[in-house]
Amino acid sequence: MPEQTLTPATETATSGRERPRVRLARLRDFALIPAIIAIAVVGQIVNPIFLQGDNLINILQTMSEISLLVLAQTIVLVAGKMDLSLESTFGLAPGVAAWLTVAAGSGAGLGLLPGAWSIPITLAVGVLIGAINALLIVRFGLNGFIVTLGMLIVLRGLLTGISGGQTFFNLPASMLYLGSALWLGVPASIWLCLLLFAGGVVLLGFTKYGRALYAIGGNVDAAKAAGIRTDRVLWTALVGAGVLAALGGLMMSGHLASVAAAQGDGAIFTVFAAAVIGGVGLNGGKGTVFGAFTGILLLYMIQNVLTLAGVPAQWIQALNGTIIIVALVLSRLTGGKVQD
Amino acid sequence: MPEQTLTPATETATSGRERPRVRLARLRDFALIPAIIAIAVVGQIVNPIFLQGDNLINILQTMSEISLLVLAQTIVLVAGKMDLSLESTFGLAPGVAAWLTVAAGSGAGLGLLPGAWSIPITLAVGVLIGAINALLIVRFGLNGFIVTLGMLIVLRGLLTGISGGQTFFNLPASMLYLGSALWLGVPASIWLCLLLFAGGVVLLGFTKYGRALYAIGGNVDAAKAAGIRTDRVLWTALVGAGVLAALGGLMMSGHLASVAAAQGDGAIFTVFAAAVIGGVGLNGGKGTVFGAFTGILLLYMIQNVLTLAGVPAQWIQALNGTIIIVALVLSRLTGGKVQD
Amino acid sequence: MADDQAATPLVEAVGVTKRYGETVALDRAGIRVMPGQTHALVGRNGAGKSTLVSILTGLQAPDEGEVRFGGEPAPRLADRDAWRQRVACVYQKSTIIPELTVAENLYLHRHDLNRLGLVRWGALRRKATELLAGWSVDVDVRLPAGELDVEQRQFVEITRALSFGARFIILDEPTAQLDAAAIARLFTRIRALQEQGVTFLFISHHLQEIYEICDTVTVFRDARHILTTTVADLPHAELVAAMAGEAAGLAEGPSRTAVTRGPGVVLDVRGLSYGDAYREIGFRIQTGEIVGLAGAAGSGRTELAETVAGLRAADSGTVEVAGRVPRPGSVPDALAAGVGFVPRDRHHQGFVPMMSIADNATMTVPDRLGEAGLISGRRRDRLARALIDNLAIKTPGPGLPVMGLSGGNQQKVVMARALASDPRLLVLITPTAGVDVKSKEFLLGKVEETAAGGTGVLIASDELDDLRLCDRLLVMFQGRVVAELAAGWHDHDVVAAMEGVRLDA
Amino acid sequence: GGGGGGGPASPAGGKPVVGVDYPRSDTDFWNSFIKYVPQFGAENGLELKTTNSQNDISKLTANVQSLISQGVKGVVLAPQDTAAVAPTLQQLNTKKIPVVMVDTRPEQGDAFMVVRADNRAYGEKACKFLGEKLGGKGKVVMLQGDLASINGRDRTEAFNACMKAGYPGITVFGEATNWDGALASQKLQTQLTANPDIKGVYMQSSFALSGTLQVLQQRGLLVPPDDPKHVFVISNDGIPQELKEIAAGNIDATVSQPADQYAKYALQYTKAAIDGKTFKPGPTDHDSTIIQVRPGLLEDQLSAPLVTADGGTYAGVASIKPDDSSLWGNNLGG
Ligand SMILES: Nc1ncnc2c1ncn2[C@@H]1O[C@H](COP(=O)(O)OP(=O)(O)OP(=O)(O)O)[C@@H](O)[C@H]1O
Ligand SMILES: Nc1ncnc2c1ncn2[C@@H]1O[C@H](COP(=O)(O)OP(=O)(O)OP(=O)(O)O)[C@@H](O)[C@H]1O
Ligand SMILES: [Mg+2]
Ligand SMILES: [Mg+2]
């Protein structure tokens, strides 16, 4: 058969070149590992408590709440959208729960509902916000960046509005649990964060649903033509992101035993930085949950090392930014491809 | 002839639907005009001073400094890149000038150079920052979003570092001029802002350079194939954006007669909102300078009306965001096309 | 007379090597194009033709070797203007900028400026309108180019390249997206330019076009130069053999002999209408039957096929697939009813470039890859390997992103995606666009094989090669089926019908 | 007695390690505080570990964790969010690490001592100064900080309450400004356009200082106090620039927050806690009073002087002149 004659020729021509590319693509997931190791070594030299269990738990716990936003954003980014409003959901969802359940009298609480309602309310607010975003973006075809930017401002404003700018405290016990409980001696929020990321790795990497997300992010028309229900997948992604953000906010509220009117403000910068440093593309279809995890881990390790090193406060930020850029350049060198 | 038979067929098939689309594409530039008129009417009803010359000048002056960031961002966005670090340049460029020229003793000034140097220094810092961005993005092929996010943090940190977090006062007279002078009874910063926007309209709409920006933003390979020196154009765009941001910062410093360590912090949100509401696409090649101008004008008019209306402080933000989303939906209805 | 050894070639590439990573796209290859020649460059998908084009137009530097124009070394890469004076090109990959207007795309970076250095939009539009009118392309030049269809876009590219007044023009598969009438118009124009002494380098997978307008042909195979000769000296079979690197030629004529038509009806279309595109269409396809849907661009064939595949919802009428009526406009429903689909434009709707071959090929059958929504990587790769073997996709493995494949192989991946679901009905729209002759023969063979297994096939195309294996041909013109031809039709009948000439007249 | 610092006994070998978390480094006031801390740390014989929570309460929580890991014996905090610090205080209590809080009082939880000036007193002093100057009638603008800030809110509430009670003839326009000078200038300008007869401005912090002056100058309102067009401006912080502007007659008054005393007494109390001393409500040796806010929480309310050009007394509030050497703003250089 003619094809048989042909195949070996191209085989040799191609096999030599494409194997390494496949390997590199896989490696890109681990692009930040060298940077993480480098920071760990520097940290240990700077201050020997860096690698102590206590300090590592401190790092993980501090990042656990924001990391849920990173997970949420990764899902949305992979599907080719953006959700800036996550940072506001992070504050508003537990804020609404506190508003309705915290006894009247102390601060702005209304005390309308018993404390046990707080967790369902938090998650419901997350669902609702995700659904509004999805309605405007998927159903009405509005630009996702600008819809969620608008939502960010509205939701932040709503939290200021219901709280009158004050912090909610005396939260019901159920709101405190996730942010303050210890499971096997380790904060529950760490377990939760690790579990959800593991779930995210499976979801995006090994399920039908996850592959649909990549397909939509990579080429939505091709996904549609291949029979993927793109609208439905996008709806669930946006709603899921809202729920994750609400859950992260709940953990943060439990951790701080309060909901500040400014909870989450400005977090979206860190979230994007973590996701993008971790290899998640802004144009969809690119990046992994594991990469995003290394991204947020790196950022918080840098913060921790700078704190332990006792860098003068006014220079901390400049150093932090410089290290991020260096990490980026390094991951560019390891990744080896022009980024976009 | 067969061709003759064919032509009318396509004629009927296309003319019905595509002619109006041409008209719509033009209209999209003016998509915000109805919203602006609506806000003006509401403003006048809320408070009859709204349309008084004094108040209009007030709106224009307040937006004049940030609007230069919007202009800069529009240029960069049209070319298919992003520059988040503009908000930091806005603070750092005049900050460095103040640091070097403000007499030692009061605050963090070093007093190394005479006051006349302040404007050249400000602009030079703008050029330098733009050049660093361009080096990393154009020359080394790093992702623009993340490079400029890193730069944003670094530059903001540098300003905190050199100022020690303090505000620079007692600025040299030359730094105050642009932000405080009146030309023909109208603040110089308004003239400057209008002039630069007019220049931007001509530059992007009617020059080879401007059209090259659109081509690069639309399809960089095609632009290269058409003979455009894409790298050079991107360099100048990024450097130009840095200079505009520095100039805006200079005007702000003159207006406030000081450079706060936080000058510009968070402005990038407003800048993106203005550009995108004004019809500038985030993926390059789309939008006009005039559209961006209507975007920032709308945002500041909303702010002004809300202040004049005496809306309770805690609800201002929520209302502001809601109005932005409504404006977006309206412009979607006028624009008539799915946004992306 | 074609080759005057003494004369300096207009353009010459010598010993050019180009690697992408460890890929060798060109291996010490070369070409000599003499002034006034129309030089064909042929080779199978991935042979390195487009890579040579990018080197000849100064978009990339060769790793080794050099390019000379009229004996002089080529300009520096950065000196784009110098390159553009020497060569104009229609690239294989679209260089249309979708956000800009048609007018501006035509005159990109060559705007008319007034004394102040400002663009004269009015003059630009008028020139653009005239230019397109000369090609009988009727589009409003103020439209954003992104709103044109594939064929119109291709014309804008061609018009642009030919309007430079360049003495040397490269056309990299200009005809892949054009229908017969459009190709005829293009060739008329090329002949006129040939008479003015313009030199062409012409790339196409339609070999009859080579014989029609080229005088010299160069064959590349596996990144190497194989031969250069006058077209007249190289019979069709030998040309194919040179490309494929084997003695066997192409099987000529209709290869379809045994029609294994079954009794069942897999597709029943009744009274279908869709806007201006087509009206009152009705036909049936039986098990194992291959039906062609011929028609020029704008005849409604594509829209009709897309309606059957669930990509569009008709305004009225019904589509029944194997006894089920899938929800109109729902691809998942159509898929569930047993439709496999190859869309018109593979880049647009065919594949997700960053995802692997395995993921793309199995995109339509996620449920077969594992239980409870999970995907077993091993099962997916096994299925993908079967498809890769089945369609002879040239790849080191199923994990390669599709964007790393050559055009023809990408098209095979799209075929694989359609076949993966074991469809009852296969809907193919221009299934072999940009595919080399051998691969085309092969893909169509696969279609026949699938039909032999009892699948009904609908092929919407204007390429006679694609339609030759059909048992029955429906010809569309201006949204209506104007003719139905049984197997054994003559080419000229079909062409005439597609152009709206009544057969019985 | 009160601030008995400088006890002789430090444990053999090293000095006691104390952690100080700075709340932010982007305002003049807190930067002064940051400058004073090492000086008073040395005076009290303490070894300092410092962190900066950049106005972010979750950073503060993490910073305290790492201070604990570094084995501090006492902690100084200045949380800008007074509710969210509760879990941190609880954790420090269980580890028996004494906490001294600066500037803010926790909503819940115990601390060894709170060192703060009374923010309600700031608002009141500002109100009384403007009330007297305007003769109990007219319009004033209050440039508030961030609605989410407890200190800002205290100042707002006290100012409004005092105006209502003492000067009902004065209309107050409150504007939230997020501690942003540009926004403050914008809102002031809008208010002056709408109400050209505004006669007083209360800036809740020095962030709005120069912007306010520029707006007044542009409108020709920057005139001496005896001119009928004069707008009375009172600021709040006591940074050197404010003192200069008062002396120059551009603004009329400020309330000086004692940045130096914050640092001095915070570290003194920390040292005392480590040494095992305790305190009781009552007057101190440094012209202030310790009150018991609730069981387990003492607060040393430092006095915050009103600074005016003439050093006069306004509705019972005594003031000092801007060149007074007791002001921290005059002791910064060198
Ligand atoms: N930018 C690139 N990066 C990596 N590999 C590339 C790149 N461009 C081309 N190749 C590879 O180089 C080889 C030659 O590709 P080329 O596009 O020149 O083929 P071609 O002859 O034009 O094929 P076709 O007929 O399908 O257009 C192919 O194997 C292709 O995969
Ligand atoms: N990208 C564009 N594509 C098409 N038209 C444009 C574009 N940008 C601007 N225009 C508009 O085209 C219109 C005509 O421009 P111009 O005034 O240069 O043309 P003219 O005076 O009719 O032509 P000329 O002076 O060349 O004879 C203007 O309103 C201009 O705004
Ligand atoms: Mg090619
Ligand atoms: Mg003209």
Automatic annotation (TrEMBL), chains A, B:
Membrane topology reported for the UniProt record: Multi-pass membrane protein
Compartments reported by the entry: Cell membrane
Alphabetically ordered keywords of this record: Cell membrane, Membrane, Transmembrane, Transmembrane helix
Signal peptide range: none
GO CC annotations, alphabetized: plasma membrane
Domain of life of the native organism: Bacteria
GO MF annotations in UniProt: transmembrane transporter activity
InterPro entries linked to this entry: ABC_transp_permease (IPR001851)
PANTHER family: ABC TRANSPORTER PERMEASE PROTEIN YPHD-RELATED-RELATED, RIBOSE IMPORT PERMEASE PROTEIN RBSC
Protein name: ABC transporter permease
TrEMBL record, chain C:
InterPro entries named in the record: AAA+_ATPase (IPR003593), ABC_carbohydrate_import_ATPase (IPR050107), ABC_transporter-like_ATP-bd (IPR003439), ABC_transporter-like_CS (IPR017871), P-loop_NTPase (IPR027417)
ABC transporter domain location: 11-247, 260-503
Record keyword Cytoplasm present: no
Keyword set, alphabetical order: ATP-binding, Nucleotide-binding, Repeat, Transport
A matching Pfam family: ABC_tran
SMART domains on file: AAA
Protein name in UniProt: ATP-binding cassette domain-containing protein
